[in-house]
Amino acid sequence: MSKRLPLMLLLSAPWLGGCLFAGPRHQGPVTDHFDGERFENLEPVKRLGPDEVFKALRTGPRGPWREYEEFAPGEPPPKRVGAGQLRVTFINHATVLIQADGLNVLTDPIYSNRPSPVPFVGPERVRPPGIRFEDLPPIDVVVVSHNHYDHMDMPTLRRLEGAHHPRFIVGLGNKALLEGEGFQRVVELDWWQSTEVAPGQEVTAVPAQHRSNRGLTDVSATLWAGYVISTSGGPVFFAGDTGFGPHFAMMAERFGPMRLSVLPIGAYRPTAFRPVHMGPVEALQAHKVLRSSTSVAMHYGTFALALDGQDEAKYHLLWLLAREPQRPRFWALGFGEGRDVPALD
Hints:
Elements (H helix, E strand, L loop, with lengths): L3 H14 L32 H9 L27 E7 L2 E6 L2 E5 L33 E3 L10 H11 L2 E5 L3 H6 L5 E4 L4 E5 L2 E6 L19 E4 L6 E3 L8 H9 L4 E5 L15 H10 L4 E5 L13 H12 L6 E2 L6 E3 L5
């Protein structure tokens, strides 16, 4: 057996397993980014078929990943933070706890061992989540950027529904999947639509440059999005999964400078993935376009989803920041590390 074959099966498991696990499709009127069947990005992005994915994963060297390591969990976050305060805690992958003005928001939560439709196939996590599930504070809102298995992890969402009964916010077409599982409070948004989550606080879905599917027959059948959370100290942006595109300038124009941006930096090699997965270079560019006072890196170091190594994205980002004439406040937090975010510059 080729030494490459186990790696190819590991990396391609979400695509292969997804053949049998397609999710619901959005049904609605035609818009500027929905043709009645599929959603589109603001700018055209070539879709890679399974054969092209396999080819791309064969073309470059794979960065090193360590075997699973056990780590002590981070300190339990505070139950709430007060008016005007903002705290961010990096848990793992794209799972980030955002606490502002007494509201607790959890992004793309995944506590499962694998991001996969089945528990025995697919990339396996290399470290535990930085905050234990039982140490989470009361979760008021869960935002889910899109339906890929590493972002919409149903076992974790079920646990949250049972333990916290939060409001779940998803893009168009995804509500049916959650309500089919018995979830009680699901809000579905199109790009630029908002929903009130607390008196005076809104969550707005914003464009991302990505795609969606849970199988091979539902590609782009549901919407992918980022989210902007309004707070008394300025807007907070969670990018979800995205490549660099014109949506960042649109958000900067609409919302003004971001007090905090949570930006993905991993799964950016091979270069064929770059249109839908930012690397450190693009994340730093997004930080600047958004005029973000503080940014936090995510989407790295937990699951081997592409060819970049376990620590590659993080250290590449730190190298880029060190070369800046005036170092931006762009944090690569430790797993389970939480920090209070300064006021807008």
